[in-house]
Amino acid sequence: MTTTSTSASAAHRATVYGYPRQGPNRELKKAIEGYWRGRGDAATLRETAAGLRRDVWRRLADAGLHEVPTGDFSYYDHVLDTSVMVGAVPDRHRAAVAADALDGYFAMARGTQESAPLEMTKWFDTNYHYLVPELGPDTVFAADSTKQVTEASEAMALGLAARPVLLGPVSYLLLAKPAPDVAADFAPLTLLDRLLPVYAEVLADLRAAGARWVQLDEPALVQDRTPAELDAAARAYRDLGALTDRPRLLVASYFDRLGEALPVLAAAPVEGLALDFTGPAAANLAGLAAVGGLPGKRLVAGVVDGRNVWINDLEKSLATLGTLLGLADRVDVAASCSLLHVPLDATAERDIDPQVARWLAFARQKVDEVVTLARALAHGTEAVAPQLAANRAGLASRAGSALTRDPAVRARTAAVTDADARRGQPYAERAAAQRAHLRLPLLPTTTIGSFPQTPELRTARADLRAGRVDTAAYEARVEAEIRAVIDFQERAGLDVLVHGEPERNDMVQYFAEQLSGYLATQHGWVQSYGTRYVRPPVLAGDVARPGPMTVRWTRYAQARTERPVKGMLTGPVTMLAWSFVRDDQPLAETARQVALALRDEVGDLEAAGTSVIQVDEPALRETLPLRAADRAAYLAWATEAFRLATSGVRPKTQVHTHMCYAEFGDILSAIDALDADVISLEAARSHMRVADELAAAGYPREVGPGVYDIHAPRVPEVAEVVGLLRAGLVAVPADRLWVNPDCGLKTRGWPETRGSLEHLVAAAREVRAELPGAADQP
After folding, report:
1. CA gyration radius, the chain
2. How far is Cα of residue 475 from the mean position of the Cα atoms in its chain?
3. How is 524-535 classified by DSSP, letter by letter?
4. N or C: which end of the chain has fewer CB within 10 A?
5. Whole-angstrom Cα distance, residue 393 to residue 399?
């Protein structure tokens, strides 16, 4: 395609659905945490946030976007913002919200000593976490459009075309759960007719504020949906479309193909659809053609991958866009989803090989790609010839680079057999050997791995990077932290200890920095939840382990105690899920490479005397394909990769794994297929539900459902933990139940960590004393 008509060119615009919130130096994180600590007031926080929003909108407009998103900004989470917008505040937080809206908002997100927070789980198959709405048959919705109107008005005051972005009503209800005091079989979607008038009021408020378009995100519709759920979506957009006092409506979906929901949305009386055309969502192209396109409507085509960091194939995207031109009245160009899921700016990375740097596109570069594609549609490819030439050269550089291929790694993966991914003994034999070797009591206590990263430790790490201290001084600081952690755990009475991971900046990045094929960024921060940001490494080439990664520190910790110290590793699926993984070969092949590197580390840990080795796979569920038809193949290679990493150990070596903040009921058979001896899972916020799910599925091995929610700044009372343990014992026999927190303790402070773990041990002892044969326990 080289030319377009003048009338058509006027129609092709560039936009995005959302943008990173944190600021170039994580100013938002610092402002919020400063507010929590009393170092700044609410006015300062709001001023900082408003400044960040203005900067983003101006940058997007200056880059060439014709329409900027508003409402995607959040102090903590956009789903929580939606709960506030519709008045879905849990009863336990209503007083706090009434007293102070901002503090009440953070209470819902983080909890208080008196009130538990909302449950947190993964946003579809990403590593972003959202706060789960709690609803029930008595829920009364009430509109509060203050945030949405304020932010749209701010952008319009800058002279910009603003498109407010709201989570759609159907997805909001499908993402919600029954409140704790509501029957588990309550379906929040039954509240749709009660919720739609609230959305109508918000839409009217936005129209009155001057918004011409509003985007309603419905990502839940890319999942398998029942006829009743599809009927609800049709009814929702029939009713919203019939409103007269509203802006134009753009209904958006992303992360996968819409499938059976596409004809429902195509037929809805709305003015436009925004669809993903990347990855598995490329099937939306055929689906759109099958329903006859969108005559008379706007199509926003997400052809730039908003979730990965590789440069777009611009000519391939232009071919897709060329096909779409005949399927809608107006075709605009966008990224496939919000750019919240990628870092801010690749040009900030000064330490990455220049050859590799030209392969990368972070949020700012993706905006440039969107603008380039829109210009090509509007004015012909001649208008963007330099950009297309540079893009072709970058793609060719990556495809031909020796950095991406290691013949030795490929030969090793090709030689793997089925036997390499199986333990040599059945679980019953291993369990007997482990009990005899470890001699643990019933309800053994442990933690998930990390302990608080103290200011002294963070300072030492920064000093090492800056050259202010040498490696020996830094390692002495790490050793001091390990000694303190071991001493505390022994005093507290924990049964299986950890070294606390003081040497690790992040559970994926730490390993990525020691494996070939990975690249670490310096500024590639991405929001995981709230003010928790991570720097996912970039997996650019074949993966191998040049040498041991954890053995020294685990051995050092074990030498300071007679109790077993767990070796702590991150599993192959999580190493992929929490990285920006290469897209030039199947994920299964990359997972096998990582698994073999970890297998070497597991073997070295065992040879060094480590009797308990934990290989964490919190991402196993989050990477589950959104469509059921795609899941069996994924789970087959994902579970094989875990077993490949862990199956070389002796029977008496106990293999643990850990998962958190996900819907585990969808993957119970896969959890079994991991063949881990012990699995620890998040359970505190979900009220021990996972223990019941495992019991119902007949899970045969040992389980540690978490009894302490580490994402809330509160110390659980002993009685609270006792109650959770007793609930766990209803589902899991005492000889297979472990006692542990929900997740690692890295983000917590020492005072709350001490109190929480001391209460955890006290609760375990209290419940243990109630068990038959307690006096005979070691």
Report:
1. 26
2. 31
3. --EEEETTEEE-
4. C
5. 10
